[in-house]
Amino acid sequence: MSNETNILTKETSLENMDVELKSVIIDDEVYYQISNNDLMRPFFMSIVSDSNHWMFISSNGGLTAGRKNSEYALFPYYTDDKITESADITGNKSIFKVSKDNQEFMWEP
After folding, report:
1. Which helix (H) or strand (E) holds 81?
2. How far is 80 from 48, CA to CA, in rounded Å?
3. CB environment 74-84: b (16+ within 10 A), e (fewer)
4. Cα angle 57, 76, 83; round to 5
5. Mean pLDDT per 10-residue segment, the chain (109 residues)
6. pTM listed for this prediction
7. What is the largest CA-CA distance in the chain?
């Protein structure tokens, strides 16, 4: 096995792939699967609760959240474009080391 770490690139591994929405059944429950979602532009979601908690999150991981109103935000209360741009400083970050066919790849979803 090579000591060199390879990086997967979208250009080589995702050619001719389309974004597709379909329903799948897992343990008798219906879920929706979005195939190739990494090819989509980031989209914005509003998550609400019945106890004055709120969260605005971008599909790329940028977020703001709080309670009551913007004065009680846990992260800076910005417009959706700024939240999308802040994905590297708020939200989650995942990097995987994947071994396949005697090679190692670093993959960041």
Report:
1. helix 80-85
2. 16
3. ebebbebeebb
4. 35
5. 44 66 94 87 85 85 83 81 79 84 87
6. 0.54
7. 54
